[in-house]
Write a structure and sequence with these properties.
It is built from three helices and two strands. The chain is mostly helical and 114 residues long. It has one domain. Strand 1 and strand 2 form a beta hairpin. Helix 2 runs antiparallel to helix 3. The protein is globular and about 50 Å long. It binds zinc ion. Zinc ion (ZN) binds next to helix 2.
Length: 114
């Protein structure tokens, strides 16, 4: 897989959470199928890059605005999931929501490290 010219950075997908493993698992658990990975994505810093130039591993992402974006997104997500969990008592009520929130917080912390 070749990388684009002139942009050596690894970014995050703007919708970093919606393509994340925990989100996919939640979607699969809810609707029974996983969303397809796109070929070109909008990054957290507003660029359009090949999906291959993005990563969800905090240690791999070299674009600072993207790291900040991802950190913020994950913290918001963790709070959102926990709120949903308390409100719904529905399909998110059991383990998945708790582990998704923990996963998101862990990633936020790793994105914040620099
Ligand atoms: Zn970026």
């Amino acid at each position: 897989m070749s990388t684009g010219p002139g942009d050596p950075h690894i970014h995050v997908d703007e919708r970093v959470l919606q393509t994340g493993a925990a989100y996919r698992n939640l979607v699969v658990a809810t609707v029974g199928s996983a969303p397809d990975a796109p070929t070109v994505v909008t990054t957290g810093c507003g660029l359009r890059v090949p999906y291959a130039m993005t990563s969800r591993r905090p240690e791999t992402v070299t674009c600072l605005p993207c790291r900040e974006h991802a950190e913020r997104e994950h913290r918001t997500f963790a709070e959102h999931v926990e709120r949903l969990d308390r409100l719904s008592g529905g399909p998110l009520a059991a383990g998945p929501a708790t582990s998704a929130a923990r996963w998101a917080r862990d990633l936020a912390t790793r994105f914040a490290r620099r």
